[in-house]
Amino acid sequence: MNRSLRRLLAGLLVTATATLTACGAGPAKSAGPGGSESAAQGIPASIRESGVLRVGTNVPFVPMEYMKPDNTTFTGIDIDLMRAVGDRLGLKVQFTNASWDSLIPSLSAGRYDVLASSFGDFVQRRKQVDFVDMLEGGIAGVVPSAKRAKYPDAAAVCGKTVGVENGSATVEVAQTLSARCTKAGRAAVTSRVYPSDSNAVVALQSGRIDMVLDDRVVAEHLTATQGGRYAMVLDRAAPAFLYGFVVSKTNRSLSEAVMKALNSLIADGTYAKICARYGITGSSLLTKATLNAGTRKEG
């Protein structure tokens, strides 16, 4: 996506530039338990010989990629899935945290083999890179659990006050929902813009707003990890898109190897188990990893 959705929850953690090597470099190991030998055979010779898959990311974006409290250990859905892919390919995964804007240029320059950083698979972006699609994203609402029944459809938000993060895609989504309401002769949606997603959640807790609009994966994580205090509604508040691991267009064999490894994780249930660690168990999960299947032009 165009950085907008990635800004959600950025205020919760301090971004630090750091490099973590999952394991020391060395010869490539054989495919891990349940690994895909056919996928491993597609690894480019240079990566096979080094035994290391170099992965660029940009933290934090909870629950996709962020640091544990020690501020040195990477965690998140993207991170855990990429580690599992590396295991299936018989490779040790090395993560490097870098600025968002530098990731694709650095990939093109050969400094990384893959990017795992909540990139949206958009048609315009595919002019530069390939995507191994691994999760569905979108926009959803978060409300107190006791009020979930009051939001059976998008029309229920008419006349309500919603919290959005400044500069994020949720600002435009709130405006679109409001326009639909007034066009139908209903009350407009009132938007309250906050500097961060966490500020909007605090406003929801205090009753100053009725709903927080958030990235759907973030919303699902929030509702799953806060003791049942919140519920996710309007999970199709905006058109869905696909998150993907990013690989250079000049490295199609690696794209295909990553896709095959990811599909082996989906087939044996490992993919669902990893996503469930972060509360992601619903419609965001894919039943099959694909290559360049996103249909949205841009985020």
Secondary structure topology:
Blueprint: E1 19-21, H1 37-40, H2 45-50, E2 52-57, E3 66-67, E4 74-75, H3 77-89, E5 92-97, H4 103-108, E6 114-120, E7 129-137, E8 139-144, E9 161-165, H5 169-183, E10 190-194, H6 197-205, E11 211-215, H7 216-225, E12 230-233, E13 241-248, H8 252-267, H9 270-276, E14 290-291
Parallel strand pairs: 2-5, 2-6, 9-10, 9-11
Antiparallel strand pairs: 1-5, 3-4, 6-13, 7-13, 7-14, 8-11, 8-12
Task: Give a description of the structure.
This protein is an alpha/beta fold. It folds into 2 domains: 5-137 and 241-291, Periplasmic binding protein-like II (D-Maltodextrin-Binding Protein, domain 2), CATH 3.40.190.10; 139-233, D-Maltodextrin-Binding Protein, domain 2, CATH 3.40.190.10. Helices cover 29% and strands 23% of the residues. It contains 9 helices and 14 strands. It has helices spanning 37-40, 45-50, 77-89, 103-108, 169-183, 197-205, 216-225, 252-267, 270-276, and strands at 19-21, 52-57, 66-67, 74-75, 92-97, 114-120, 129-137, 139-144, 161-165, 190-194, 211-215, 230-233, 241-248, 290-291. It has a 7-stranded mixed beta sheet with strand order 1-5-2-6-13-7-14. Helix 3 (77-89) packs antiparallel against helix 9. It starts with 18 loop residues before the first strand and ends in an 8-residue tail after the last strand. 49% of the residues are buried. Residues 1-30 have low confidence and may be disordered.
